[in-house]
Amino acid sequence: MTENSLDKEQQIVNHLVGTFQNLTGKVKRNRRIEVSIEKKQITSVLNYVKDHLGFIHFSHMSCVDWLEDGYFELVYILWSPEQKIQLLVKALVDRENASVENADMIWRQLNTYQREIREMFGVNFIGMKGDKEFILEDWDNMPPMRRDFNTVDYIQEVYFERPGREDAQNVRETISKRTGEEIPEVATKYSRD
Amino acid sequence: MPNDKNSQKIVDIIKNAARKHSLFVLAYGTGCGAIEIPPTMTSRYDAERFGIRGMATPRQADVLLVTGYLATKTLKRVIRAYEQMQDPKYVIGFGSCTINGGMYWDSYNTIKLLDKYIPVDVYINGCMPRPEAVITGFIELQKLIAEGKADGATKYKENLDWYRANQKKVIKNWNMPDYNW
Amino acid sequence: MNSLLLIILILLGGAILAYLSKRISPMLSSIVSFLAITSAALVFFFLANDQEIVKISLGDFVLEWGLNAYSWIFGAMVMVMATLASLFSIFYMKGKDRLGYFNLNFDLSVMAMMGILFSLDWVSFFIFWEIMTWSSFLIIVYNGISEGKIGIKYMIFSAIGGYAMLLALVVTRSQIHSFLITDLIHSFAGFSGNMQALLGLLFLTAFGVKSAVMPLHVWAPRAYADSPMSYTAIFSGLLSKMGIFGFGIMLIAVFSHSVDGTIFVYREVLAWLAAITSVIATFYAVIQTDAKRLLAYSSIAQLGYIVMGLAIGTKLAVMAALFLAIMHAIYKGTLFMVVGAVERQTGITDMTRLGALIRKMPWTFFAALLSIIALAGIPPLGGFVGKWMLYESLITSDHYFLIILAFLSSTAAFLYSFRFLFGIFLGQEEKEFENVKEVPFTMVLPMLIGSLLLVVFGTFPGLLFKPLASAMSFLGMGDVSWNMSMLSNGWGDHVDTLDVINSVVIIFVLVAIFLGLKNRKRTRYVSTKDIHTSGEIPTENENLTYAVDFYKPFERAIAPVMKRKMDFYYNKFGEGLETFFDFLRRVYTGNGQTYAFYVIVFLVILIVFSQQIFF
Amino acid sequence: MREKATTLYLGPQHPGITGNMMIKLKVEGDTVVKAQTHVGYLHRGFEKLMERRNWLQSFTIVCRICVPEPDPNELNYSRAVEEIEGREVPERAEWIRTLMMELSRLASYLLWFGGQNGSAGLYTMPQWSVGDRDYILDLFEELTGGRVYHMYIWPGGVRRDLPNGFTDRVLQTMDYLEKRLKQYDQLMFENTIFQRRAQGIGWIDPAKAVEWGVVGPPLRAAGFKSDVRIDDPYLIYDQLDFEVPTQQGSDVWARALVRRTEFQQSINMVRQIIDKMPGGPVYNKIPNPMKWTIPAGDAYVKAESARGEFGYYVVSDGSNKPRRVHVKGPAYVHGVTLLENILEGANISDVSFIMNSLGTCPPEIER
Amino acid sequence: MDTNSWISILGFIATVVLAFTVGVSYGGIVRKITARIQNRVGPPVYQNFFDIFKLYSKSTAVNHGWMQHLGPAFAITASVTSLMFIPVLNGQGEFWFANLNFKGDLIFLLYMMVFGSLGMALGAGQTGNPNSAIGVSRGLSQMVGYEIPWVLALVALMLQTKSTSITGIMDYQIAHGTWMMFESPLAFIAALMAMLGMFHYAPFDVTFAPAELSSGPASEFGGKYLAMMMTSGSIFAFVKLALFVDIFMGGASNLIMLVVKTFLLYMVPVLYGIVSPRYRTEQSIRYFWGWPTLIGVLGVLYVVFVR
Description:
heteropentamer, A: alpha/beta, Beta Polymerase, domain 2, two-stranded parallel sheet, B: about 180 residues, alpha/beta, Rossmann fold, two-stranded parallel ribbon, 7 helices, 5 strands, globular
């Protein structure tokens, strides 16, 4: 893989840093740029890069739950088909009563992503249309993708388990208990911590 | 109840022979196991040799093939499809995840034990089971039918309350028509 | 007293009594009307015979009334269907306004029809013809739906027809110095070719308007659909048959005395026009969403068959046409009553909104089913007999492309037949119609009688063949052979309807018994909500009935034919002749009284100045 | 008073739907006035499951995300991990990975040929092409031990080197497929009925295609030379000689032609790969997977799957478990917003046909 | 009853059994041939017997009302009645099992065949399933399409033989020692093209298109109802084939000829169907109103002006 010089990428970062306040950016590698912005800047930055910098293709939108630090990180991933650069726009949102401006008028497929994130993380997108339910049905618990949602507790409460599952935490031990076999050394080496 | 071969009447034997050789499978790919159904039905493995063919609607079908894990949302549809099928009807649980949740044992959205919700006649294990395994499963079902032992529908009818309780535990918004036979 | 005069007087008296008795009770008015028509029917069937002749002298004119085998057929049809319709009308019209007005016109229409049938001379024919026109017009505007528009359309076309007939009368008189129909029949051959052509054209136009042949049909759909259903049952079933009656006289009796080529051309052109009418009207019927309009277009299509048969003019064809005319009166009358029953119980006739009334109104559905089977021409009911004879006559008389058009129309008729039954009686059960009940017995009875008549005539068509044969020999077709249950064509092919119905009934009963007994205990009825919806559970407010644009693919396939409506051409034509149409609009304001006034004025002029005009 | 349009449920239990999803159609006559995709029938919460699994355990479940074509998942996951960790991959492993990718593309297209024609009523084609797909699955089985789920491309390289004589068998299969492709042409691409069915149906506005997030064959069928393999080269695609086919029609027929050409391209590429493949190790060993930690960081990697751009956004917080793995399949846009849009005004007959032409795969949407 | 009635009742039953057996076996053979073309083994040829028997032996049945309950009865009535009016075997001018052969003619049959479709359509309509209604609307629309070339072909035959009855047309063929398919080839081609639509194989299987409508009108029929439908369908397939053989191929003098001729005819729509995707409804209507109709018109003109 040939390493191009990163001039093109650096130019865009510099331009963005010059245009918006409170915007930090860096070049991650060739064809990858990352900028961090504030929550209230999201629509304006997205609009700007779409209209002026050629990032017209919306690739992906993600949300990362930083439970320990108390915020969600929203990541908008854009692609410029002309310059062939992927741009990651990151913004932090407070975990408590998380709400962000709706951006689905910029790219309408964003509506789908936002609906998923609303459902899975409980982030509220102000002014977004669309059904409340996207993937889950009749879900009455905490949004499941939040890290403080404990799936094991939930499944023990709701679902049945086949007998044998409960002692399956260490399968080999169980088997050896049942059959009296020796546990091979290889197996113990890779046992769970 | 014609539970063992000796108590089957001649009529039952004839009927079961026909049922065994003509299994209409409901075309419902509930999980990722659906990807091995096309190879099973098409030229390489050709399940039609055994009289197995796909049917579009539950009214016409005999066999409900639960191909893989069931998300709770799908479970509701599967129950509805199952209840719309006509007796005698059979269920084949396909893949490890129908047996004990398999890979998704700690997923909050998939059921772990299929036979708590609908009666299962035959399980096929594996993730995913090969087409040969699927066909073996069908042959196993055929044997059960011939012996008159594939009576899942009867069990379901008799223990409807128990099944309903289990189903309602998972499906919160229960708005299905009554099952009355 | 002379029974023909008696019938007319009973009906006239009934009309007036019905109008007056409305003041006592609205219901009484309908009952009086029903009783009048029933007693007229009794008189007709038990007293009337072809020996009686009524002569009424009016100045120079002598109005002659009489009965013959040909008019007896139509008379019987009118009396039976009018009785059924008026019986139906009692409860159907219950609670509606202006019942006296309605029943007056209802009875007058029936009287006018009987009068037309009794007429032996053209003047009384014309007088009754006009009474029929304006009484029907008054009923069309009874509902008050966009009065002006239908009114003007119906009026203009009726006027065209009326004036054409009047002109024809004048011409006839000037030629033979007689108004008697028989005189025209016998002397027609002696006319010059041009005169024959002119007279033919005028009479065909006059009758064509009533029987809705293609360029003259545009008034019919709205007029049929917008009058009260109990009246439409006779409007579509019987009034249009008066056109057929006239066609029969002209095409068979009159034209057959001519050996001129133009008349042959007329017949062929008329047959083709009728065939095209039936195809186009069928296509329009297919795309309708309102049950009434569907039946209205269907009527036009069916009338097309009848006219086609008359225009072909072979023995089998005329037999087919007359048979179909009677069948059409019965099944279309029944179907309009069915729609009336549905309308009374649900308040709508829009097939995109109706649905699943089969369990609420089983008897109505049964009548509708039999009538639709007859309408579609499916054996073993009466409609099949007529259609069979029509096709056989077409093919044995070498009209091989007409038969294709007829078949196209008849096959496409399956589409709207199914649409009608499905749209009203089948499909999803709707919350809106949860409390709908079957109509009262007096409404069910006429429908059932109508559908049973279809079964009887389907099994024993010979019951009708006998009078038809004598009617045809009256028209001058010589002896017509007939058989009780055997249909046969000129090539010696035949269908035995008795065997057909035996076979169908036996097999059907056997299979139905088998179906009923097999797993009887574990056969369940489930509601229409419990259907295969791909595993999903539909919510309450989802619409699961496929009703809008039911035959969209078919519409797309026939789109080139449907691009232009006939109305479009009339409008174009109207633009060219704007002043003329302006005049027509001014004269025919759409108000019945003015029209009646014009007609009477015309008659008076005719009578007073007849010497000057005709001699 | 019921609403005017009829509700027609296409799925989840319906022969015309790909996978387990539902399209709620509102139809007037046979014209769709509104289409709404409903997903979630296959939701397993993969991203949640991965929070509880370490980096290697997570690797075994990513391939379950998309069944018709699991390899891009493995590849993307491995590349993302490698990118965050900075792990080198031996060159031969890159070549074998490319071979896997192209083979899986062939298998996926064969399945697609079947699906597209099955929805059009030509049932012979699925019988042939799904049967032929099994020959590729046989190759996979020989190489990896699994027919469908391979778990072969893992962080640091690939699991095993190629068995003896494997390349010959691959080449034989390629010859066979090339021969079969001519028969497919006769049955499908030269079939006038198929052409009449496919032309002018499911049109995507080329002016909006990029903005709407269309990717893969549908985008190329709209006239855009867009392919991750050349736009953002990965593996060794920059060393292979291949063309990205484009079409101008932007309808089902154009998409079929694009896939038809790419099928041929892939066969050629497999031959090139086997021809040029260097020797050397195939696996850069990873530490004890139970204790394997990845430094904090994030990466967005993407690969061109048979249905279009397949993206993985992986975040590590420095522990032995992934913080977040977020998968973006092409169907996420194709199956929801795009499908809902182009189905409006379509004929009921064409709904399944159009959906197949986009290669909708519901497990990518809900995971 | 006297001996003659008993013999004729036996004749009825024998004909129905023959039609059922041949029809169902053909269904099995078609599945087998399809399978062979699709590179697979396929089910045994008697598979359809198992299927039908199994469906009859289903222990529950669901209906949405008495119209659905009786819909299959309509279908069977239509197919069996049509069968009664079609000469199945004839030799030396005699008709064996001449059930009601002389009591009806072609135009009667055309309408009788629709009787079943209408009954089924009503049955399907009562289920309230939108798929059924759409399927019926498509099926009826398509029927209007293929009836035109079909009737044109029949008209050509009727004009040529001066007879509208099947027995008349067969007599003509025996008297002239030829088959109508050679006598008026254009009509035969038109009828053959119409036949593609009549059998509802691809490309004209839009009524039952699984990928679009689940299984169309049959969506809500299961158990005994579906079995009835399949029985009636098998008999109906035989009826149509026998009709074709009678009017175009001079009938069959013995069982072997009957099987050979009907089988060859049956292969036309089957083989065409195996390699064709399906048309949309309006496409198929336009197809039938295109070339087949033109050929049919030429066939009629050929009979009128040349013969």
